[in-house]
From TrEMBL:
<dbReference type="InterPro" id="IPR017871">
    <property type="entry name" value="ABC_transporter-like_CS"/>
</dbReference>
<dbReference type="InterPro" id="IPR003439">
    <property type="entry name" value="ABC_transporter-like_ATP-bd"/>
</dbReference>
<dbReference type="InterPro" id="IPR003593">
    <property type="entry name" value="AAA+_ATPase"/>
</dbReference>
<dbReference type="InterPro" id="IPR027417">
    <property type="entry name" value="P-loop_NTPase"/>
</dbReference>
<dbReference type="GO" id="GO:0016887">
    <property type="term" value="F:ATP hydrolysis activity"/>
</dbReference>
<feature type="domain" description="ABC transporter">
    <location>
        <begin position="1"/>
        <end position="218"/>
    </location>
</feature>
<keyword id="KW-0813">Transport</keyword>
<dbReference type="InterPro" id="IPR050763">
    <property type="entry name" value="ABC_transporter_ATP-binding"/>
</dbReference>
<keyword id="KW-0547">Nucleotide-binding</keyword>
<comment type="similarity">
    <text>Belongs to the ABC transporter superfamily.</text>
</comment>
<dbReference type="GO" id="GO:0005524">
    <property type="term" value="F:ATP binding"/>
</dbReference>
<dbReference type="Pfam" id="PF00005">
    <property type="entry name" value="ABC_tran"/>
</dbReference>
<keyword id="KW-0067">ATP-binding</keyword>
<protein>
    <submittedName>
        <fullName>ABC transporter</fullName>
    </submittedName>
</protein>
Length: 291
């Protein structure tokens, strides 16, 4: 799927501005941003529930979606919902095709209960299954683990990963639970004030952000000239931040060989929360591990 230069205005106010990105089937892409950043609007455009906008979306004719709370009928059973929505999509519901997914989501044994007996988390999970009933190439999920505890969230994330891998479905997911995004996604798009600020690949081997404070500018310049540990994030007169997967011991051995003395050193594991705070606040707010 390709999103091309999407711009959306409401009453003259720009909600989305020149948004462009792509993602493929089998890939899980996270969409992260503060409230009002434009995430839900972008997802509605991709799902074709918003029709008026500037720009274009390619290959979005077969998209399932769960945006905001699922629209369910309290007096109908879970199973009745699956038959009903399948019929709307022009399909005949076959329980055997979704049995494994329903069991993985702990819904199979409650399908004959009315939705009014479901918890909020169970309703959300039923909404996720409904979003897949039209056998989509892509699915758009806005806060899919909302109202779920940690264990239930992990259960849902595992099933979404399985769907992407085994059903070859591309998944676009937004969540305020950054740990969920980090657990499931292949990469993340950061959206703020209707603009994509950047993109982050999710690495299974988490790098560290190192902050080194040198005794003098000459030592800093020497370190920059010879270091091959990683990319430089920021540097000032005597301070540098680098991103690296190197061990701290390697850094200090290198400094000793150069005869460089540090005044201060901090190592902070790079998490998605760190990246988010850095992009939106310009600094890292998580606690650092000092060596």
């Amino acid at each position: 799927m390709r999103v091309n230069s999407i711009t959306k205005k409401y009453s003259g106010s720009v909600v989305l501005k020149e948004i462009s990105f792509d993602f493929k089937q089998g890939e899980i892409v996270g969409l992260v941003g503060s409230n009002g950043a434009g995430k839900s609007t972008l997802m509605k455009i991709i799902a074709q529930t918003i029709q008026t906008f500037d720009g274009s979306v390619e290959d979005n004719n077969h998209v399932g979606y769960l945006i905001e709370e699922p629209k369910l009928y309290s007096n109908k059973t879970g199973l009745a919902h699956l038959f009903y929505f399948s019929e709307i999509y022009g399909n005949k519901f076959k329980l055997s095709e979704y049995e494994e997914l329903l069991k993985g989501l702990q819904l199979f044994d409650v399908l004959n209960k009315k939705v009014k007996e479901y918890s909020l988390g169970m309703r959300q999970k039923l909404g996720i299954v409904i979003s897949l009933l039209n056998k989509p190439s892509y699915v758009v999920l806005d806060e899919p683990t909302n109202s779920m505890d940690i264990e239930t969230s992990l259960e849902v994330l595992q099933q979404l990963r399985k769907i992407a891998n085994e059903w070859n479905v591309g998944v676009l997911i937004s969540s305020h639970k950054l740990e969920d995004i980090e657990t499931i996604c292949d990469r993340v798009l950061f959206l703020e004030k209707g603009t994509i600020l950047g993109e982050q690949q999710i690495s299974k081997r988490s790098p560290y952000i190192l902050k080194l404070v040198f005794d003098n500018p000459t030592d800093l310049a020497t370190f920059i000239e010879y270091q091959e540990f990683g990319s430089i994030i920021h540097s000032s007169e005597r301070t540098i931040q680098i991103e690296t997967t190197a061990e701290n011991s390697e850094i200090f051995q290198f400094l000793n060989r150069l005869g460089i003395r540090l005044i201060d050193f901090t190592a902070e594991k790079k998490t998605l929360r760190n990246v988010y705070m850095s992009k939106f606040r310009g600094e890292y707010h998580e606690s650092a591990t000092r060596s």
